[in-house]
Specification:
With 101 residues, the protein is α+β, with helices and mostly antiparallel strands. It has 2 helices and 4 strands, in the order βαβββα. The termini are far apart.
Length: 101
Amino acid sequence: MEMIIRGDKLAVTESMKSYIDEKLGRLEKYLENASDVRCTILVKVRGREQIVEITIPLKSFILRSEEKQEDFYKAVDKAVDVLERQIRKNKTRLMAKQAKT
């Protein structure tokens, strides 16, 4: 999975990049062509809040998650959990449509 990590009003450190890479690695098992997928991650700071936006465009739908937390690592964890839930939900829908045809 190709990851584009940007920081808005924030310098993204190597430890932040490696943490995001580690957590998003969990999603690769759900994706068919994980090497072809391009993931965009935007990390922002607004006051005390750390905002993490993750967008993954796939062929049939777009996965997107935005989480706000005071701790960056908690925000990444919640965002990845939301994306994992979306993938599982949409995978069963796609399989059901293919079974009908």
